[in-house]
Write a structure and sequence with these properties.
Layout: E1 2-10, E2 18-23, H1 26-32, E3 36-43, H2 50-66, H3 73-86, H4 88-91, E4 102-110, E5 113-119, E6 122-128, E7 131-134, H5 138-141, E8 156-159, E9 165-170, H6 171-176, H7 179-188, H8 191-203, E10 211-219, H9 226-236, H10 243-281, H11 303-337, H12 340-395, H13 399-414, H14 421-442, E11 444-446, E12 450-454, E13 465-469, E14 472-476, E15 481-485, E16 490-495, E17 500-505, E18 510-515, E19 519-524, E20 529-536, E21 543-547, E22 550-555, E23 560-565, E24 573-576, E25 588-593, E26 597-601, E27 606-610, E28 613-614, E29 630-633, E30 640-645, E31 650-655, E32 660-665, E33 674-677, E34 683-688, E35 691-696
Parallel strand pairs: 11-32
Antiparallel strand pairs: 1-10, 2-3, 3-4, 4-5, 5-8, 6-7, 6-9, 9-10, 12-35, 13-14, 14-15, 15-16, 17-18, 18-19, 19-20, 21-22, 22-23, 23-24, 25-26, 26-27, 27-28, 29-30, 30-31, 31-32, 33-34, 34-35
Helix pairs in contact: 2-3, 12-13, 12-14, 13-14
């Protein structure tokens, strides 16, 4: 992607401010590999040293930026701005009170990225999708800074696209031209004629005000043609356009409006005259002759009389029905006697009536279609505006505002009609744009489920548990335990003729299982033998987890988590571990221990307990709420938990602080039952019926 740029700099002698623009030369841009640095400075001071202060600030930024040891534009600009902040006392001769009089913007264009650091009221906007969007929030620009001791406090970075137009200027340009005028000008023509147009208009300004502006137009490689630019200028603006032309345009507009209003006024006068005439010529009501009809009072009808009237009406109706065939015959007989000319006239009349009626239906249908098209256009424009506002918010890293706009766009998309192919295509396009942006904000990736073992040949029913020990993988079947080799994508029986319902890792050399009788059995992988232990869990226990030679059991009927010490000995010791939030155990469906205890409930909530007390764990930055069907995995020493949200078909990577870091989506995840994470946290192994699947967490 290439770009073209042009600057505007008008500095009247009597202006209350001094200003300057710096743009890095092509040779410096190419040699440094740091992109093109540009700086706009406006200093509200009439002092002689104001110009020297501006040049000193610019020189300090340029020197530090292009002498940076790194080729990273963002880091280099940040370091240059920090150096300027440090050197401010020398640059301002110790007069830090002058800071609130300086407006400055330093920016870098490199590849497809834009980095900005600003202070004060320098405008930075982008034209994208025919919308003029602020890059730097104007509410921050207008913030008072009289007590500041530094020029730059933050850095804004964003992505630029082909056909974007960037404009940076001081406030006065927007005081003299409307935003719509500026947008239309810089969007329609290239930077040189656009700046020339603004310059010609502003030179007629009698007020001694400084103007500075810089325009960048992003274009595809080798797509900048001067001849086409000239043609666009002549079509868009008159060569002699000036402030006088604008006044004349206002006069012409007033004349047009008057011409349209005068017929309406004459019509009102005509109606008023007719009303007055009618009032004069209409006779007074009192003078009109009054005619009173006098009728004899009828006697109250008797039931017999009413019956005879009803009978008579039925008789007349019957006679009329009997006469229909005769009347029809007579009608067609009369048609034969009509002349040919009359028949043609009658036929044409009937045809015209049919055409007229059909025309009414066509017109109504056309009006209906036109209205529907307009409504669709209005709705899509509103949705596009929301998406554009989200893009603008992302430029200055306001993710919360971007998410709000995208969610509003998605709500509007639900009601968008899709009755035509074009409407369906447009709706799908907008949905894809909104979803792609949301995926970027929430770090959502499409995951690939790779099969590493299919135990369908050995097991007819779904596997019961998945266990990880020293990055070795084991699966519990109905009567066997299998060892899985992810790298070789194979499996082999480890324990046969053993009916286990659950299993977990115990220590480096041992696995622990629970059988149908709720007894515990350990398996030593070195000695390859099993040992039944005396510990038996009560039937009220709904879940258990082993940790540091102890077992923690979930007992919702007692509203308690039981800590079982020496569980493999002949004398296990049981005590209550939970100290508060006892009700959380009633809906808990999973317990997991990593030093803290984690509970997963059947209403989509995650609880974290430390030393028996609830830590009020909250998950932030979710793209959508968790479902009620969850499975959790983590280990001691890890800074993340992993959450399998079955109903939403996603695997979440979440910091233990509560922030969602990554989200992996795949519709096939709804068919899985359990999972574990590799020691390096680069793979997820999932139990899906009789298959073991893998997700590479490094592929994004």
């Amino acid at each position: 992607m290439d770009y073209h740029y042009q600057q505007l700099l008008l500095r009247p002698t009597k202006s209350s401010s001094k200003c300057d623009i710096y743009i890095a030369e092509d040779s410096l841009v190419e040699d440094s590999n740091l992109g093109r640095l540009f700086i706009l400075v406006e200093f509200f001071s009439r002092e002689k040293k104001a110009k020297d202060i501006i040049q000193g600030i610019i020189k300090n930024i340029v020197t530090n930026y292009y002498s940076s040891p790194t080729s990273n534009a963002e880091i280099s600009l940040e370091q240059a701005c920090q150096s300027t902040n440090i050197n401010l006392p020398d640059l301002l001769d110790g007069a830090l009170g002058l800071l609130h009089k300086i407006n400055i913007l330093a920016g870098v264009l490199k590849d497809e990225e834009l980095h900005l650091a600003s202070s004060g009221n320098i405008k930075a906007l982008v034209v994208r999708h025919s919308k003029l969007i602020p890059i730097i929030p104007e509410k921050e620009i207008l913030a008072p800074k009289s007590k500041e001791t530094r020029l730059f406090s933050n850095l804004v970075s964003g992505e630029i696209k082909t056909n974007d137009v960037l404009i940076f200027s001081n406030q006065t340009l927007f005081d003299y031209f409307s935003r719509e005028k500026i947008k239309k000008t810089i969007e329609t023509i290239n930077p040189e004629p656009a700046i020339e147009y603004f310059k010609n208009m502003l030179l007629e300004n009698v007020n001694p005000v400084s103007f500075l502006a810089l325009i960048f137009k992003m274009i595809p490689e080798k797509n900048y043609e001067t001849d086409k630019t000239k043609e666009s200028v002549s079509n868009f603006f008159d060569a002699q356009d000036s402030m006088t032309n604008l006044v004349n345009l206002e006069t012409k507009t007033t004349g047009v409006l008057t011409a349209h209003l005068w017929p309406a006024i004459k019509n009102k006068i005509r109606i008023l005259k007719i009303s007055i005439t009618r009032k004069k010529t209409t006779p007074d009501i009192a003078q009109l002759p009054i005619k009173i009809n006098v009728t004899k009072t009828e006697k109250k009808s008797s039931p017999r009389h009413l019956l005879s009237i009803f009978t008579l009406k039925i008789k007349k109706t019957w006679l009329w029905l009997l006469s229909i065939p005769q009347k029809t015959t007579t009608f067609f007989a009369n048609l034969k006697t009509i002349s040919r000319r009359s028949k043609i006239i009658a036929g044409c009349s009937i045809l015209l009536i049919i055409i007229f009626i059909a025309g009414i239906f066509v017109l109504k249908n056309h009006q209906k279609t036109t209205l529907a098209t307009k409504n669709f256009s209005d709705q899509t424009k509103l949705i596009e505006d929301k998406i554009s506002q989200a893009e603008a918010a992302l430029i200055y890293q306001n993710e919360e505002e971007a998410v709000n706009n995208l969610k509003q766009a998605q709500i509007l998309l639900v009601d968008l009609p899709r009755t035509t192919n074009f409407w369906q295509t447009k709706a799908t396009e907008l949905e894809l744009r909104a979803q792609t942006m949301l995926n970027k904000i929430y770090h959502i990736y499409s995951a690939t489920l790779t099969p590493i073992a299919n135990l369908g040949t050995a097991e007819t029913n779904a596997l019961k548990a998945l266990i990880k020990n020293n990055n070795q993988l084991f699966a519990v079947g109905a009567e066997s335990v299998y060892q899985i080799e992810p790298a070789q994508k194979s499996f082999s029986p480890l324990i046969t003729s053993a009916s286990y319902v659950d299993g977990q890792n115990w220590d480096q050399n041992n696995l622990i299982f629970q059988n149908n009788e709720r007894k515990f059995i350990t398996y030593n992988m070195s000695l390859k033998n099993s040992s039944v232990k005396p510990l038996v869990l009560a039937t009220t226990i709904t879940g258990w987890s082993s940790y540091a030679d102890k077992i923690y059991a979930l007992d919702p009927t007692k509203k308690q988590i039981l800590k079982i010490s020496q569980p493999l000995s002949n004398n296990p010791q049981t005590q209550n571990w939970l100290q508060d939030s006892f009700a959380t155990t009633e809906k808990a469906v999973q317990i997991l221990v990593d030093g803290d205890i984690w509970l997963v409930s059947n209403d989509g909530k995650i609880y974290r307990f430390t030393r028996g007390k609830n830590q009020n764990f909250t998950i932030n930055n979710l793209s959508k709420a968790l479902s009620n069907n969850l499975k959790l995995y983590t280990e001691n020493g890890w800074d993340k938990i992993y959450l399998l949200d079955f109903d939403n078909a996603r695997l979440l990577s979440i910091r233990k602080s509560g922030t969602v870091e990554e989200q992996f989506n795949n519709p096939d995840l709804v068919a899985c039952q359990n999972f574990v994470i590799s020691d390096q946290q680069n793979s997820a192994w999932l139990l899906c019926n009789t298959k073991i699947m893998e997700i590479d967490l490094t592929k994004k």
